[in-house]
């Protein structure tokens, strides 16, 4: 049976230790990318793909996430009084983006455990999972393409990216077979963070999934894997190895622009890349960057 997918799950319970001390009191998902927190880009992507019911899996010290997507009456009144309608529009935009819900993860047992915490909210429908560390450029289609393939194949769909073999140890990596569609492959196996020598390919899972609800039963029985955590990759491996359970696993190969905000250097690159293409910032930033680069040489 084909369902219209409306629910997105965004795990946001991580401690953000790579960005300490900035994340000591502020969630890493609230770190600004130009002038919006990283998490807002992710919610905007979900909404653009037709997902209006968003569940965030949070942890301690994540109240700022709820505050960002809630009304701030005093701020709104001040902006209105000043006649600053453009900033008021931006503030209200975040509030009105989607119906956002929250549930605590509790024990930090890994991504698989975080997804399992969404079971009561999701029920028996397919749903999307978007990781907050990955920002997909709004001009490039990925999530809506994955949802389309899920409807056609009634299977779990993951996003795959060809990466340099030297960095496969940072990802879940897929064993793949081609299909009749150029940008879609069948996933026959998955391994979490393999060594370069043991990686089955250089097709890495990036932070977008469209999952069948059967994943919850599998996660219930998935034992801790790499890092002593319940790995979503391990549960997906079970689905890939048993396609009769829920249609198996397919991958949409993404060839667009992706920004990794979970790494400090890539976070800085993301800000620069997005800012130079902004109409309000690019014209002044681009020539400055060129001059700055000359000084580096």
From TrEMBL:
Pfam families: NTP_transferase. One of its GO terms (biological process) is UDP-alpha-D-glucose metabolic process. Belongs to the UDPGP type 2 family. The keyword Transferase applies. Its EC number is 2.7.7.9. Keywords: Nucleotidyltransferase, Transferase. One of its GO terms (molecular function) is UTP:glucose-1-phosphate uridylyltransferase activity. The lineage of its organism: Bacteria, Bacillati, Actinomycetota, Actinomycetes, Micrococcales. This is UTP--glucose-1-phosphate uridylyltransferase. It catalyses: alpha-D-glucose 1-phosphate + UTP + H(+) = UDP-alpha-D-glucose + diphosphate. The gene is galU. Transmembrane segments: none annotated. It comes from the Bacteria. Residues 7-274 form the Nucleotidyl transferase domain. PANTHER family: UTP--GLUCOSE-1-PHOSPHATE URIDYLYLTRANSFERASE. Gene3D superfamilies: Spore Coat Polysaccharide Biosynthesis Protein SpsA, Chain A. The keyword Nucleotidyltransferase applies. InterPro entries: GalU_uridylyltTrfase_bac/arc (IPR005771), NTP_transferase_dom (IPR005835), Nucleotide-diphossugar_trans (IPR029044).
């Amino acid at each position: 049976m084909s369902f219209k997918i409306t629910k997105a799950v965004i795990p946001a319970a991580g401690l953000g230790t790579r960005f300490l001390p900035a994340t000591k009191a502020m969630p890493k998902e609230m770190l600004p990318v130009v002038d919006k927190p990283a998490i807002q880009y992710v919610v905007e992507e979900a909404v653009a793909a037709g997902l209006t019911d968003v569940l965030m899996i949070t942890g301690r010290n994540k109240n700022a996430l709820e505050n960002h997507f809630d009304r701030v009456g005093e701020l709104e009144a001040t902006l209105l009084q000043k006649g600053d309608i453009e900033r008021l529009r931006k503030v209200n935009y975040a509030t009105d983006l989607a119906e956002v819900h929250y549930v605590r993860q509790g024990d930090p047992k890994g991504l698989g455990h975080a997804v399992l915490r969404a079971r009561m909210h999701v029920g028996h429908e397919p749903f999307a999972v978007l990781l907050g560390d990955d920002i997909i450029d709004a001009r490039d289609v990925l999530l809506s393409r994955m949802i389309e393939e899920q409807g056609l194949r009634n299977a779990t769909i993951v996003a795959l990216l060809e990466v340099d073999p030297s960095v496969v140890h940072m990802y879940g990596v897929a064993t793949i077979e081609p299909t009749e569609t150029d940008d879609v492959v069948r996933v026959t196996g998955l391994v979490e963070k393999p060594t370069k020598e043991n990686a089955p390919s250089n097709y890495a899972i990036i932070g977008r999934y469209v999952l069948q609800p059967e994943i919850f039963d599998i996660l219930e029985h998935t034992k801790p894997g790499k890092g002593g955590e319940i790995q979503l990759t391990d549960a997906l491996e079970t689905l890939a190895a048993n396609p009769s359970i829920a249609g198996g696993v397919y991958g949409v190969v993404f060839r667009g622009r992706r920004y990794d905000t979970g790494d400090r250097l890539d976070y800085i690159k993301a800000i620069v890349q997005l800012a130079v293409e902004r109409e309000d910032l690019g014209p002044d930033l681009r020539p400055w960057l060129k001059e700055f680069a000359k000084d580096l040489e």
